[in-house]
Amino acid sequence: MAKQTINTGTTANDGTGDTLRQAGAKINANFTELYTILGGDSAGSAGLTRLTDSGLDFVGTTQITKLAFVEHPSANLKITLPDSNGTLLLDSATQTLTNKTISVDSNTISGIAATSFVLSNASGNIDGSAAQKAIPTGVVIGTTDTQTMSNKTLDSAVMNGPTITGTIHDANNAEMLQVSPTGSAVNYFKMSNAAAAGTPSIVAVGNDSDISLDLKGKNRGAVILEKEALGNQTLTADGPITKAKTYIICNKGSTLNLSMVDGTVVGEIKIITNKGAGDAIITPSNLAGAPTTITVQQYESVQCIWDGTNWYVIGGNGYALA
User: Fold this and answer.
1) Are 221 and 205 in contact (CB under 8 A)?
2) Nearest to 312 by CA among 289, 296, 282, 295
3) Tell me: the pLDDT tens digits for 142-181?
4) pLDDT digit string, tens, across residues 235-278
5) Which of 195, 160, 264, 211 is nearest to 203 (CA)?
C-alpha cells in the first residue's frame, strides 16, 4: 500500500480537507502497514521482524534473535554488507573461513606455543598443542636451497656426493684430514670396506691407464708399515710378467720363458722367485749393461729396480745374467 497522506485543506478549517473520519482511517491504514512490516506487538508470530528501542528483532517460533548496536561516542559509523550470499562471522561461533586474506601483521593468532614454529596436527590444521619446535637463530635450511650451515652436528647422516673443502676435524676440533684440490683433476683414490675375511682397500682410480698412489711422510718422516705384503702373480706358462704385481712366483716343471716390460715409475721393484723344476728365463725389454736375460733356477731368486730407462739387478740368490 502506498503511503496515505491526510488532506489538511488550503487554510485552517476551510472545509476542503479530509474529515476526521477520513483522516483517522488513513492514520489507521498507515499504522497497520507499519505494524505488519515490523511485527507490531505480535511477539509470538514466527517470521516477523520488528524495530525496538534496543535494536532489530527477528521473531522465531519460540525465540527472538536481536540485531543490536553500540553507539560510537564521537563518530558516525558505516557498516557495508557484501553483495554476496553467506553467513556473517561471529566472534564466538564455530565457523569456517573461505577465500579470506588474513594479514599476519595486523592480526593476532593466539594459542600457539611461545617461540615455536606453527605446527599442524594429523589433519593438517594449525594446532598450538602439538609438540613445539623451538625457533632457531638464523635462516631455516631448505632441502633444495644452496646454503651454508654452521655449528651443526649431524648424527647418522647420509651424504651423497658431498664436496669437502679445507679440513675435517675430530671430536676435539683438531685437524684430522686435509682435502687439497688439484685443478682439472681426473685421478683420485677409492676406499672400500670388506666382508668377513676380506681386505679393505685404498685404490688409485681415474681416467689414466696407469695411476700410482703416493704415500709419504713430512720432510724426513717415513711411511711406517706394521706388516708388509706384496701383490703377487704366479706364472706356470710362457708369457709376459704383469705390470700390476711386484712379486712374481715362477712354477713350471720345464723351462719357463717370461718377458718383462719397462717399469711404470722410477724406483719400481720386481722380485722374482722360482719354485718350479724348470729354469725361469726372464727377458726384460731394457736391462742395464750387456746382458739381455736373467735365468733363475729352482729355489733361486732375483730382484730388479727400474730407473726410468733400464731394469737393474740389485740382488737375489743364484740367478745368472746372459
Assistant:
1) no
2) 289
3) 899 999 888 888 899 999 999 888 999 998 999 999 999 9
4) 999 999 999 999 999 999 999 999 999 999 999 999 999 999 99
5) 211
User: Concatenated DSSP letters for 63-80?
Assistant: -EEEE-----SS------
Q: With beta carbons less than 8 A apart as the criterion, state whether 282 and 294 touch.
A: yes
Q: Which long-range contacts (CB under 8 A, 24 or more apart) does 6-14 make?
A: none
Cα-Cα-Cα-Cα torsion 60, 61, 63, 69, nearest 10 degrees, comes to 10
What separation in angstroms does the CA of 158 have from each of 154, 162, 191?
9, 10, 17
Fold of the domain built from segment(s) 232-321: Jelly Rolls (2.60.120)
pTM equals 0.60
**Beta strand pairing call for 311-317 and 280-284:** unpaired
What pLDDT, on a 0 to 100 scale, did the predictor assign at position 103?
85
Taking alpha carbons only, the member of 155, 160, 183, 180 closest to residue 168 is 180
Residue positions counted in the chain:
322
Distance, CA of 213 to CA of 210 (rounded, Å) = 10
